[in-house]
């Protein structure tokens, strides 16, 4: 029987390079899939249903909340965003490792609902590099950068809840480190319950046969 995949939550400071890292991981290894969020906002030009998002209306989204159909959800700028449970569980059952790229508060909610999920926090090597990357984007004002740095201070208070911290200094090395950690996590007894139960059943059967 194919082993079930792992639910992986990747978080990190704004500017840590999470998006670039996840894209590189997906490109190199086909056993990973990025969870597709559901949203009530209207599609932007070029966006496709089931590719960037699952698009829906507010009524359907709230019905999904009521029936516990989301791994996690939040509201932002008047629209709902959430992770459909059915899609995640379907991919996990197929043996794929599902990646959620979400912020720390959402990550902790996911951990409560899925205790066996793997939490990875991505950070640059130091604060100077974090600020350099934010400035290097060239898309945000100095005031916004200052707010993001302040936000990073708050986020740093919850890092201890994660399973691993990965320093994103060199992209390729970081991709390999995450892949190594995921493979190691797949072998943890807590994620091999069915395998252990099967071995135990065979041992009991064998022991019974010897006694007879």
UniProtKB/TrEMBL annotation:
Binding site for ATP: 12-19
Keywords assigned by UniProt, alphabetized: ATP-binding, Cytoplasm, Kinase, Nucleotide-binding, Transferase
Keyword Lipid biosynthesis: no
Tagged with keyword Nucleotide-binding: yes
EC number: 2.7.4.8
Family stated for the protein in its record: Belongs to the guanylate kinase family.
Alphabetical list of SMART domains matching this protein: GuKc (SM00072)
Record gene name: gmk_1
Class of this enzyme: transferase
NCBIfam families: guanyl_kin
Described purpose of this protein according to its UniProt entry: Essential for recycling GMP and indirectly, cGMP.
GO cellular component, one term: cytosol
Protein name per UniProt: Guanylate kinase
Record's catalysed reaction(s): GMP + ATP = GDP + ADP
Domain called Guanylate kinase-like: residue spans: 5-183
Superkingdom of source: Bacteria
Record HAMAP family: Guanylate_kinase
Listed GO MF terms: ATP binding; GMP kinase activity
Annotated localization: Cytoplasm
